[in-house]
Specification:
Number of helices: 9
Radius of gyration: 22 Å
Structural class: alpha+beta
CATH class of the largest domain: Alpha Beta
Number of domains: 2
CATH superfamily of the largest domain: paralog of FGE (formylglycine-generating enzyme)
Helix content: 25-40%
Distance between the termini: 60 Å
Strand order of the largest sheet: 10-9-8-11
Order of helices and strands: HHHHHEEEEHHEEEHHEEEEE
CATH topology of the largest domain: paralog of FGE (formylglycine-generating enzyme)
Length: about 425
């Protein structure tokens, strides 16, 4: 009897916690959109960018499609047409509106999508509160997945609207600037050494992780070292001034071809104004700060810089081993700056604790292709399409960025983008062999 009462209490507390998290995550998405006018939310500035209102609708579609419709007999679909408009890439669910054409959807309006979100939120709260134990056990893991999925789209909302605003000649600001006190001098690059040997990486335990973060498995590492800080804007500017974008010897073949085809001369959002560089941010265009981590570089640019510097990019296994045990704190989206920050504070002398800004600021490119871990198997059905089918022609990034929700981070988190992608908040940290 006592054991049953304890189990009931734990179950009720878990359900209450899940409800609170659901409400908070949904409110955060609406809060991000509140900075924008309806006209802002409809723009698609390139095929990789989605309009804000599409993100708001798609995250609601996810809950409706995978939880409410199949598991709540009383739920009524808001609009059957939304199944086509807001499916992203789930072949098992049905056809979808082409991704490059999402910006052509003047209808539904932002008001209609707001009503859709309210409808789905209300349905989810009724289901969370009123479902029997058997149904709750079914929906609880899907609810966790849906919330982390929505947090991914919160980051995309900020990434995408930054690109949208950057191509507007008015260079509008998403929010007012949040100045930071700059350190008196740039940090001096130092190195933290790690022994080689047989190590383990990948998710373990009961906490949430995406399927691509496991299974946990062994890897062999040769001795290596990581730089204490990510590469700064000032350091990257030196690469530019040394002809980095004009010297083919530093570039992978496809990267050099991309530089020529796209006319790259600097990271995305950088603009030379006379003798100084300026950079577009979510707070408008600003003078480039040398001490801040360089951001919005592709894998091609990160790799070229590393070669120019006589170093290399770390593998994702090296990055995870180095980061393991460090706190999951840093300049993440909860700071509300939405921009990489210059490092502060003295660097301790003890071991891996000397590493700075491993979490937050910029996603750090690794030298690892995005492939399956040993023994990985995608789940059956549409949910199995979430990650596994993208394991081709992509590279892994680690560590989160200034637009990544704080409650969304893990040391094992594997982000991935094509090597030419630059609109993500991506930077780099150097590695070297010992």
């Amino acid at each position: 009897m006592f054991d049953t009462a304890v189990q009931d209490k734990e179950r009720d507390e878990a359900r209450c916690t899940a409800r609170q998290r659901f409400v908070a995550v949904r409110a955060e998405s609406a809060g991000l959109a509140a900075h924008l006018m309806p006209e802002d939310q409809a723009i698609q500035s390139m095929p990789d960018v989605s309009p804000t209102k599409w993100h708001l609708a798609h995250t609601s579609w996810f809950f409706e499609t995978f939880i409410l419709a199949p598991r709540d007999a009383s739920y009524r679909t808001f609009d059957p047409a939304f199944a086509y408009l807001f499916n992203s890439y789930y072949e098992a669910v049905g056809p979808r509106h082409p991704r490059p054409h999402r910006g052509l959807l003047s209808r539904p309006t932002t008001d209609a999508i707001g009503a859709y979100r309210d409808h789905v939120t209300a349905g989810m709260l009724r289901l969370i509160d009123g479902s029997d134990d058997a149904t709750w056990r079914e929906i609880a893991p899907l609810l966790k997945l849906g919330l982390h999925h929505e947090q991914q789209h919160q980051e995309l909302i900020l990434m995408d609207i930054k690109h949208v605003f950057s191509v507007n000649p008015l260079l509008p600001a998403y929010q007012a600037s949040r100045p930071q006190a700059l350190p008196a001098a740039a940090p001096i690059r130092a190195w933290v050494e790690f022994a080689g040997g047989l190590r383990e990486i990948g998710h373990e335990g009961d906490g949430f992780a995406f399927d691509n973060e496991g299974p946990r498995h062994k890897v062999w590492l040769e001795p290596f070292a990581l730089a204490t800080h990510p590469v700064s804007c000032g350091e990257y500017a030196a690469f530019i001034e040394d002809g980095g974008y004009r010297r083919a010897e530093f570039w992978l073949s496809e990267g050099w071809a991309t530089v020529q085809q796209q006319g790259w001369e600097a990271p995305l959002y950088w603009r030379r104004d006379g003798a100084e560089w300026r950079v577009f941010t979510l707070s408008g265009e600003q003078r480039l700060v040398d001490n801040e981590p360089v951001c919005h570089v592709s894998l091609f640019e990160a790799d070229a810089y590393a070669r120019w510097a006589g170093k290399r990019l770390p593998t994702e296994a090296e990055w995870e081993v180095a980061a393991s045990g460090l706190p999951l704190t840093g300049n993440l989206a909860d700071s509300r700056r939405y921009h990489p920050a210059a490092p502060h504070g003295a660097t301790p002398d003890a071991g891996a604790s000397r590493l700075r800004q491993m979490i937050g600021d910029v996603w750090e490119w690794t030298a690892s292709p995005y492939t399956a871990y040993p023994r990985f198997r995608a789940a059956g059905g549409a949910i199995g399409e979430y990650n596994g089918k993208f394991m081709c022609n992509q590279m892994v990034l680690r560590g989160g960025a200034a637009v990544t929700p704080a409650g969304h981070m893990r040391h094992t988190y594997r982000n991935f983008f094509p090597p030419s992608a630059r609109w993500a908040f991506s930077g780099l940290r150097l590695a070297e062999d010992i």
